[in-house]
Amino acid sequence: MSEYFYFDVELKFARDPDQLLPIYVKASVEQSLQKVFGEIGGQTVVDLLKFDALRRRIILRVPKNFYVKLRAALTLIGEFQGVPCHFLVRKATPLLLTLVETHLQF
Fold this sequence. Notes:
Layout: E1 4-13, H1 22-42, E2 47-52, E3 57-63, H2 67-75, E4 79-80, E5 83-93
Antiparallel strand pairs: 1-3, 1-5, 2-3, 4-5
Helix pairs in contact: 1-2
C-alpha cells in the first residue's frame, strides 16, 4: 500500500482572484494547516503534483498519517487573496492512478 494519500481538489471562487498561481495555492493550503493545527500542522509536507488554472483543479500529495489534517485544513479555507472561496475535495485516494479521468467525467 502507498505511504501517501492523493487529493483531487477543485477551487471555487466568488469572483476571479488577482493571481491564481501554484505557489499561492500551495501557500494557502500550508497556511491553513498551520492556522488549524499549529506548529505540527505547519510541518506537514504537502506536495502540489498538478495545477490546472483553467479548470481550477489541483492534485495534492500528503503522507497518509496527515490525511485527516489536510482534509480538515482544506475544508476550513474560506478566503484566497481576499476573495471568498472554498476548496472542494472531489476525490481522495491512496492510489494516484485512481485520479485518472476518463472521457465520461468531462
